[in-house]
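batch job 7 of whatever, protein = NitT/TauT family transport system ATP-binding protein
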Amino acid sequence: MLEIKDLTHTYADGHVAVRDVNLTVANGELVSIVGPSGCGKSTLLRCIAGLIRPAEGQVILDGRPADGVPEGLAVVFQDYSRSLLPWLSVRDNVALPLKRRGMSKAQRREAATEALESVGLAAAGGKYPWQLSGGMQQRVSIARALAYRPSLLLMDEPFGSVDAQTREDLEDLTLQVRGGNDMTILLVTHDIDESVYVGDRVVVLGASPGHVRADLPVDLPGPRDQISTRELPEFVRLRAEVGRLVRGVTETTATAAK
Ligand SMILES: Nc1ncnc2c1ncn2[C@@H]1O[C@H](COP(=O)(O)OP(=O)(O)OP(=O)(O)O)[C@@H](O)[C@H]1O
């Protein structure tokens, strides 16, 4: 279980990016995080990833306070162009973090090949990242995270720079891989529909400073489907509710504005 307790982070210039964030995520849960630009989504992820030490509060993983980068963590960022090493082949990029797992060269190669297959890039292992399209590079980043078999996967706008079709494919891929592995996923997105489509819960952050504004369960049947799930009345209701919350409009003010 991931527990975030009373987390506050103030940057060196005195800017309070997030204040008193409390959040509990069960093992195997996929939680979408949405909120207006600058509300502290990335700051929160970076605190959980151990990349920045929060000014106050704690990140607790399976009952133990996290100190530094947690064991079993993988991260996928939006900027795939900077996340892959251009001088390594695609397969070697995917295999690289597995050295930390103490796997032999043959095991690393096999795991990388398998992960590339799962993202539909079995044939691209011998190529270099710069020989692939943006969407393909992002799939390589996801394959690298999956090969690592993380217990916690943090995704920061992972599909932000790919075309709409690839984005849907990657959303489905995320749902598919998390189904087969007991992986806890936190996914930051600007896309409200996406947050509802992939999430077991949607956490809406409010701004100035960042705080948890709402935590909504997503009660949609699985397996989810890009066409039929998005037509369900519950999907339509939730996306409207999340949309209002992100824009800072409450039910009461929305009604009053009519
Ligand atoms: N290194 C830094 N020093 C000072 N302030 C920072 C730093 N990094 C981020 N901030 C500020 O902290 C706030 C939260 O930033 P953060 O990147 O976490 O927000 P976000 O919700 O992820 O934004 P976006 O949706 O635009 O990516 C913003 O006001 C930002 O300007």
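notes: The two ends are 42 Å apart (CA to CA).
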